[in-house]
Amino acid sequence: MLLDAVALPEAGADGGRLQFRAFFGNPCKPEQIALDGLPEGSDILERRDISGCTMVVGRAPAPLHLALHATPPEPDTPPPAPSLLPVNTPETGLFAGKNVLFGQRLEESPETVLDWLSWHHDLHGANAALVLDRCPPDSFAASGAEFEHALQQGLEAREIDMVVVLLSAPAPLGKPGMGPENHPFLAPDAPGKDRMEVPAPDPWRAPLGQGILFEAAKWRFLARARAMVTLDVTDFLAPHDDRPNVFDATRAAPSGVVLLVGRRIYPWRVRNGQPERFADHICRQFDNRRGIARWGCAPDVAGLNATWRMIRVAFAKPDPASVYAFWRAMALRVPGRQASELAPKTSLIEDAQLLHIAQEIWRHKPIRPPVSKLKPAPKHATDAGRTAIVTTMKNEGPFILEWIAYHRAIGVDDFLIYTNDCTDGTDTMLEMLQSKGICQHRVNPWVPGGELKPQHAALQAAESEPVIQSAGWSICMDVDEFINVKIGDGTLKALYAAMGEANMISLTWRLFGNNDVHEYHDRFLLDQFTACAPELVRKPHQAWGFKTLFRNIDIYKKLGVHRPKGLVPDLWDRVKWLNGSGRPMPREMFRNGWRSTTETYGYDWVQLNHYAVRSAESFLVKRDRGRVNHVDRDQGLNYWFRMNHNATEDRSIQRMIPALRAEYDRLMADPEIRAAHEHSVACHRAKIAELRATENYENFYGDLTSERFEALSRMLHIFGSNVFNAGPDVIPADLHKRALPRGFFFTVDHHGEAEH
Question: Which residues form a coiled coil (predicted)?
Fold first, then answer.
């Protein structure tokens, strides 16, 4: 597809020779343009690839006529008749010496475009605009002569003296296969895209797919402009204050190019029945640091041979000291939607500069977000009050007392425990412990087949429990997870003292394997299992999450499995969140992060020992009872493969065994508690015997305890993510026996859901 062609007299040539440029749209490769077969006196000087398009530079005698000869469909068939191509004379005089805005308009209203023009005219010195009008033929928005007339009337009414040229194309210019740019699915920050129906391809409204248009516009219109900036009609330059305006800065830049960096902005809400306006946009995301790259250029300073692309000028290095900011008004770009459809409301905060502009410059009264307040509480971590754990269980009776005794020994005050469908005495033990003031026990309100999973149903119920509402510190964790404080005397008091006024701390998972322990023994897990994953274990992703101790001061609205959820956005700057080494967590984690990264993990102060598999025999029972949270997933061999890590050793928690033993013995001195524990142990052993008496589970036990799986548990670092998704069956059966070279890595192709 030919987008444009221009010709002008060749510099220094006699006899009326012309140099032409033809701009072919994507897809077009330079080699598709043949160099031979040209008329006498004509030649092609260059075929340049530009963003999947091709610019052809050539020369020919005047008068110039271009014809496109297509390749014959078959070798022995005659070629199709040539297509005559229009050749235009450059209209650079329209913008000679002007400060020009160059951008695209999709279906934005004339009023929006007029606001864009007047803003940059009044505040930034723009006196011309070249607008690529991509309004589709089926649009209800103003287009063609109607749009042109509305702009002309608006410019006169606002007394704006600007040259405005509208460009249009008879064919769509969007990226093939993509939906409309003004649909939430293509809004970069829109939440819930995994639940959206993907919009059908719409080449008229899709993001611009013809990157060569910037170069074409230069040669057709902008080569003699004083300076120009690339900004769509939803993009507004920020005030330049006491600096030169962007056009003057462009001319002063040594390369003739300045960088424009944009940030997406949002309204809190647009008044019912009112159109979206730039002045409604008074909010930004507190945790989005990625900018939008655009540029400004002084053509004669940068040189006309430097290719113009969508986000940069080729071979031109912008002055790093001269960066200009702009805002992209997303409710103008994706109209008719609630702000919560375009960005998570928990990320939006009021921006003081945007509010000032809306009120003082536009004389608009935007709807502002509510102002929140922290719950009154002491600032220092040590003064916060009681620490509470909320957890869910099913058939965990043999392991409850060690877990409770350990956490009481390090300073946990309260336990809120939800159970469902227990058959090993777990629920009766917890009822008895509740009667003795050791924990609070509740029946999980989870409904099979309901919307909520068991753990989420319990957390929702826990939010209204006094033990959680009155707690100073809370954490959601499981009975196979142990808080391992590595500083001071190993207690939470020592951890809180180190935290100062921080109000959250992440406990990075350290996965502990079965340590080649096959049979179940009624002994402390902390004694038996010391083999674990390395500290840096990025794969599988299930192995490297974290849980979070947090203050109950109403920065977040509800409990979450890994961390509190529902950040109150205007309190984001009150979040003082540390990682397990006492370093601040990045703000990008504040809303919903729960997986550790190389930037966020830490073990120096505290970690969460996660005994996900225990012994092979106990894992048989774990598989049989199913999972508390993911009720639809089997805990089979693939789970064991992913979670059984025996590559290294960590005994740091064992310094707390004397304190654990003292508290455990104190509890077990109560005859009722001892009897309940022994009953659960007996039930556990009976269940193991029952399962191992079946061929299926005995074979499964044989796999778990095999030489192969014991070896694999020490070499998980060599496998790619797809191996963990596909499961251990994709691993060569003898791989664990081979002498593997240093740096050996194994992965496979795998598509779809992870195997469980």
Answer: none
Distance between CA atoms of residues 327 and 343, nearest Å:
15
CA distance 459 to 461: 5
Tell me if 232 is assigned to some domain. Answer: yes
C-alpha–C-alpha distance, residues 124 and 100, integer Å: 11
Q: What angle do CA 264, 270, 272 make, to 5 degrees?
A: 155
Q: Would you report the helix, strand and coil content of the chain in percent, each value rounded to 5?
A: 30, 20, 45
Structure-block tokens of residue 53: 């398009």
CA dist 645 and 612 (Å) reads: 10
Indicate left, alpha or beta for 37 from its phi (over 0: left) and psi (-120 to 50: alpha).
left
Looking at the structure of the chain, the number of domains it has is: 3
Q: Does 746 reside within a domain?
A: no
pLDDT in tens, 190-216: 999 989 999 999 999 999 999 999 999
The answer to whether residues 366 and 358 touch, using CB atoms and an 8 Å cutoff, is yes
Mark whether 140 and 43 lie in a shared domain: no
CA angle 57, 217, 39 (to 5 degrees): 25
Burial class of 89 by CB neighbour count within 10 A (0 to 12, 13 to 18, 19+):
exposed
Helix (H) or strand (E) holding 209: none
Residue 726 CA to residue 120 CA, distance in Å, equals 55
* DSSP 8-class letter at 298: -
The DSSP bridge pattern shows strands 606-610 and 531-532 to be unpaired
348 and 401 belong to one structural domain: no
Same domain, yes or no: 298 and 400: no
Residue 593: both structure tokens together: 């992060």
Whether residue 108 sits in one domain with residue 79: no
391 and 348 within one domain: no
Q: Tell me how far the alpha carbon of residue 162 is from its chain's centroid.
A: 41
Q: Which of 85, 105, 129 is the last residue of a domain?
A: 85
Residue 727 placed within a domain: no
Q: Is the dihedral of CA 380, 383, 384, 388 positive or negative?
A: positive
Same domain, 345 and 268: yes
Residues 378 and 384: beta-carbon distance below 8 Å = yes
Tell me which residue range forms the domain holding 680: 381-691
Bridging pattern class, strands 43-50 and 53-61: antiparallel
The phi and psi torsions of 184 (rounded to 5 degrees) equal -55, -30
CA angle centred on 28, ends 25 and 33, rounded to 5°: 115
Find tokens 């004379």 and name the residue: 89
User: Given a cut of 70, is residue 628 above it in pLDDT?
Assistant: no
Q: What is the structure's pLDDT at 630?
A: 40
Q: What is the domain-level CATH number for residue 617? A: 3.90.550
The CA distance from 554 to 221, in Å, is 57
Over 60: is that where the pLDDT of 633 sits?
no
Q: Is the dihedral of CA 180, 182, 187, 192 positive or negative?
A: negative
Helix axes of 397-410 and 657-668: crossing angle, nearest 10 degrees:
120
- Write the burial class of residue 9 (CB in 10 Å: 0-12 exposed, 13-18 middle, 19+ buried): exposed
CA–CA–CA angle 641, 647, 649 (5° rounding): 125
Instruction: Report the pLDDT value the prediction gives residue 753, as an integer from 0 to 100.
Output: 55
Q: List CB contacts of 516: < 8 A, sequence separation 6 or more.
A: 531, 646, 710
Q: Are residues 304 and 182 in the same domain?
A: yes
| 96 secondary structure, DSSP code | B
Q: Is the peptide bond before 540 cis (omega within 30 degrees of 0)?
A: yes
- Whole-structure pTM value: 0.83
Q: Are 340 and 569 in contact (CB under 8 A)?
A: no
Q: What is the mean pLDDT of the chain?
A: 92
DSSP state of 366: P
**Inter-axis angle of helices 657-668 and 671-692, nearest 10:** 100
Q: pLDDT by residue (tens digit) across 356-383?
A: 999 999 999 999 999 998 888 888 999 9
The CA angle 144-147-151, to the nearest 5 degrees, is 140
Which structure tokens are listed for 224? Answer: 């003699």
Helix, strand or coil, per DSSP, at residue 727: coil
Q: What is the mean pLDDT of residues 608-628?
A: 88
